[in-house]
């Protein structure tokens, strides 16, 4: 593997995908309101979901950094991280981002966010996660395959 190819070649940086889609959901919600709740108090549920998502992402990032590997998928992976939240999910940062996005969708009270979640998740699975898995299997071989057999992809 050459230095220039030592990354998974994901098609989009996940935070940009989620952030861009959420901006689109807000614009759609402004142009064509599509509320989820009839009462504003129900929006607090969204803030709780956002907090849980942020906690998962924060712990996952710290775990990767402590292990000495890159969080940015355009940079080389240096090790398989199997501690912290990576004991339960091979992709806890992406699970956390999905929770943050879903929580914001609830907090801003627009079904548009959930309508856009389907293409987001397809893009993440096909254009990010599967590419990362191929890359990690190619780079680390059997130790990564063993990790895959022990830990679920998402939840």
Summarize the topology:
Elements: H1 14-31, H2 44-67, H3 92-107, H4 111-140, H5 142-150
Helix pairs in contact: 1-3, 1-4, 2-3, 3-4
How does this model look, in words?
By secondary structure, the chain is mainly α. It has one domain (11-150). The protein has helices at residues 14-31, 44-67, 92-107, 111-140, 142-150. It is elongated, with a radius of gyration of 17 Å.
| Low-pLDDT residue spans | none
Q: Structural class, please?
A: mainly alpha
State the end-to-end CA separation.
Answer: 31 Å
Mean pLDDT: 95
The coarse silhouette is: elongated
Q: What kind of sheet is the major sheet?
A: none
Order of helices and strands: HHHHH
The count of helical stretches stands at 5
Q: How many structural units, i.e. domains? A: 1
The residue fraction in helices comes out at: 55-70%
Strands, total number: 0
Radius of gyration based on Cα positions: 17 Å
Beta-strand residue percentage = under 5%
Features:
155 residues; 0% strand; elongated
In short:
The chain is an all-alpha fold and 155 residues long. 63% of the residues lie in helices and 0% in strands. The mean pLDDT is 95.
